[in-house]
């Protein structure tokens, strides 16, 4: 797409129809674009706000080809997708961003880490696992990660001692040293087709330790100027190393000794960037549309400090979702409520999020924690 392209006719394809695809589609529709989503679930969140829904799986080559052929540009809201047909289409000139080659690399967490390491980007110490002996290479405790398919805490196992080897992940995997973490940070990085880069503020992620899912995000992170600048420099180098186009969520560990290490990269809008919808001049969801359609990247200016909290399905409930406490929560000043429209809840499933703004980040956190205590996503079936 060049500057003379008629953007009023632009057709955007999104692989994936979850909450990320939903908000991407809403931003694309705001810009007047036609949106087609590919997802196997009828009436998935993104389908509710898009022009067309191709019902198909992410490894269905025919449906993936249909999506690409019917749109001007294709992008992703998830990384677990068949890249073989997409590489063929990309090599024949179809516009798919990030490129299927970048997606394929990122799908394999070991290969992703290896590339970053080779490019001089700091990462935790790691080792490929070919045998039980390899699991002992760094001593214990140690973190084992599946190379493929892991997300939201899935595919990650802590081995506390040698006796834990019998519960080790059986799939292809690698191990990482257990990092002495002070804070978990993240930066959303946008990179255009022409190589223009914009970084969002460094944020601090807090995790629900029961299931290792990001629970809340503080923007900006409570870190020194020096750590902030180093984080952004490392994240820019990481996306340039990938030659990525689109939006990338770069997760970092800040160690207790003050070292910064890249944990992993998501090649799509990221949970740590939800706050940008209310808190930044351009949201991550609009930014990816700009990046992949060859439009200038928008300002990433932080308009207000904020805290984002994920609304997870309550333990002990499943079935049709029921929102408890919405009236009381919406009385909290500068709170925005997002519900994704998923038809089924289960424990710890991401069902929505809230973002709370305040000039004082600590007050924003206080208000967000109050809302988190009030808002509960329960289901039609209760079990013990």
From TrEMBL:
Keyword ATP-binding: yes
UniProt: ATP binding residues: 109, 145, 176-179, 184, 263-264
UniProt pathway: Purine metabolism; IMP biosynthesis via de novo pathway; 5-amino-1-(5-phospho-D-ribosyl)imidazole-4-carboxylate from 5-amino-1-(5-phospho-D-ribosyl)imidazole (N5-CAIR route): step 1/2
Function: Catalyzes the ATP-dependent conversion of 5-aminoimidazole ribonucleotide (AIR) and HCO(3)- to N5-carboxyaminoimidazole ribonucleotide (N5-CAIR).
Keyword Nucleotide-binding: yes
InterPro entries from the UniProt entry: ATP-grasp, ATP-grasp_carboxylate-amine, ATP_grasp_subdomain_1, PreATP-grasp_dom_sf, PurK, PurK_C, PurT/PurK_preATP-grasp, Rudment_hybrid_motif
Residue ranges annotated for the ATP-grasp domain, each copy included: 113-293
This protein's encoding gene: purK
Catalytic activity field: 5-amino-1-(5-phospho-beta-D-ribosyl)imidazole + hydrogencarbonate + ATP = 5-carboxyamino-1-(5-phospho-D-ribosyl)imidazole + ADP + phosphate + 2 H(+)
EC number: 6.3.4.18
Superkingdom per UniProt: Bacteria
Protein name (record): N5-carboxyaminoimidazole ribonucleotide synthase
Oligomer status and interactors: Homodimer.
GO molecular function list: 5-(carboxyamino)imidazole ribonucleotide synthase activity
């Amino acid at each position: 797409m060049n500057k003379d392209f008629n953007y009023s006719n632009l057709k955007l394809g999104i692989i994936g129809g979850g909450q990320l695809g939903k908000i991407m589609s809403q931003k694309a529709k705001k810009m007047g674009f036609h949106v087609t989503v590919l997802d196997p679930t009828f009436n998935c969140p993104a389908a509710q706000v898009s022009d067309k829904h191709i019902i198909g799986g992410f490894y269905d080559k025919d449906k993936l080809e249909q999506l690409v052929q019917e749109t001007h540009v294709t992008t992703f809201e998830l990384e677990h997708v068949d890249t073989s047909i997409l590489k063929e289409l990309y090599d024949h000139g179809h516009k798919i961003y990030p490129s299927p080659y970048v997606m394929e690399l990122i799908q394999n967490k070991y290969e992703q880490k290896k590339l970053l390491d080779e490019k001089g980007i700091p990462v935790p110490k790691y080792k490929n696992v070919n045998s039980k002996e390899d699991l002992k290479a760094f001593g214990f405790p140690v973190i084992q990660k599946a190379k493929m398919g892991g997300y939201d805490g899935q595919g990650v196992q802590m081995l506390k001692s040698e006796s834990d080897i019998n519960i080790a992940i059986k799939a292809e995997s690698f191990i990482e040293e257990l990092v002495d973490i002070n804070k978990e940070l993240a930066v959303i990085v946008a990179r255009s087709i022409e190589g223009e880069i914009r970084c969002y503020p460094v944020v601090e992620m807090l995790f629900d330790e029961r299931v290792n899912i990001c629970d809340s995000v503080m923007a900006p992170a409570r870190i020194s100027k020096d750590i902030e600048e180093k984080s952004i420099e490392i994240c820019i180098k990481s996306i340039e190393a990938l030659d990525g186009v689109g939006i990338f969520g770069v997760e970092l560990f800040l160690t207790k000794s003050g070292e910064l290490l890249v944990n992993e990269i998501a090649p799509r809008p990221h949970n740590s960037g939800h706050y940008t919808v209310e808190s930044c001049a351009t949201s991550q969801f609009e930014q990816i549309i700009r990046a992949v359609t060859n439009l200038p990247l928008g300002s990433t200016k932080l308009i207000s400090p904020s805290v984002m909290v994920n609304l997870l399905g309550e333990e002990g409930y499943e079935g049709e979702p029921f929102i408890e406490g919405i009236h009381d929560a919406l009385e909290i000043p500068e709170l925005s409520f997002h519900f994704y429209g998923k038809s089924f809840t289960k424990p710890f499933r991401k069902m929505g999020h809230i973002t709370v703004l305040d000039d004082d980040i600590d007050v924003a956190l206080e208000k967000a924690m109050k809302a988190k205590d009030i808002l509960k996503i329960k289901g039609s079936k209760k079990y013990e």
